[in-house]
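Weekly puzzle thread! Below is a chain. First person to post its structure in token form gets bragging rights.
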Amino acid sequence: MPEIGEVARVVHYIHKHLVGKTLAKVVAQTDENVFGKVGCSAEAFEKALTGKKVLDAKQQGKYFWMIMSSPPHPLMHFGMAGWFKIHNEETDYFKSSRPSEDPSDWPPKYWKFNLQTAEDPVCEAAFVDFRRFARIRLLDCAAEDMRNVSPLMENGPDPVHDKDVLTEEWLVQKLGSKRIPVKALLLDQANISGIGNWVGDEILYNAHIHPEQYSNTLSPAQIRQLHKSIHYICSFAVDTLADSSKFPEEWLFKHRWGKGKKDSSTTLPNGSKFVFLTVGGRTSCVVPSVQKKTGPVKGDVKDERDGDGKADSEGKSKATSGKKALKSKKEEVDEDVSEPAAKGSTGKKDTAKKEKEPTKNSLVEDEDEHESTKPATKKRKPDLKTEAEPEPKKQKANVNANGVKAKPEIANTGRRRSGRVSGKAA
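Winning reply:
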């Protein structure tokens, strides 16, 4: 996900190619996610920007916007995989291992809107997003009021543009007002704008703070260092326009991306080992030898309201609701959006089901599900009790008056046992 440095890179290219120019042509594609989920539409976007002049471009954290010659102004958020491309200009902040697109192919794949300037030389720009988690909206307000309306007003201060707000005193108050893992606090855009997963890990590694430690347990010295680390990492990322080739070699960013790959190293140049933990719903890169637990850490702490160490039901429900609240944030909260589960999937691993050998009956049923012309029937063994032939009834023994069984009477059929007819006349 593009974070504070990557967004600064895009703002840089908008200044370079679009500011001061008039948009002669604006074409947008209908997308109920990118436009529709924030109350905008492709038609409204085209109408609002066509013929307008781009006066400026600004940023707050992960949001950026263009100031037009008159309202409304377009406000954009990249989501998980959005980006802003300039025709015949390399704007990407990383080199993909996949084959690159032909620069002559324009507009690029997955474009959401395409802009064309009136001035010579003509410049074309496009917003792309193949995952459709990006958001594009129009704010009908004065340019100077952009940060005073939703959604920008709900976001915290930008570490680079709002240094006068994000002071050490402000950070002391913010950390002390919450009891959540410090990494989760940094990722919540309502607290501080622009810090995403890799920036948050880099800040905490630089500050020597464990990401799971509760925010309200940090010492004054730790808070002082955390404040310095926030400004240092964020400013460096913005100043270099997120060009990782300019990042210091000792940064985690240079070494963390091999997770899950064969023969990948988990050792930094100084010999320290790093591991991966899940904190605040995100994968965190941690160096245990440096980021030591110096206070209560989530998962290691007893519930204070329950003396026997067992978390009571109220504590559990509050913890659960806290997690849900974090994930129910709008796109302003930095949470990776997982791919939707396939239809009918529960989202859980079916390893046990896959490893289990299917029975004959299950195979028959599976085949029947795909044969729409045949009724789904189930084969079963016959019930011996109900389907077997009934046993013949036993005849009661004939007992005489002396209690001796009498020989059964044999009917005179006129035939011998051999089956021949006797010599008696008929």
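Puzzle host: Confirmed. Bonus trivia for everyone else. The first helix runs from residue 4 to 17.
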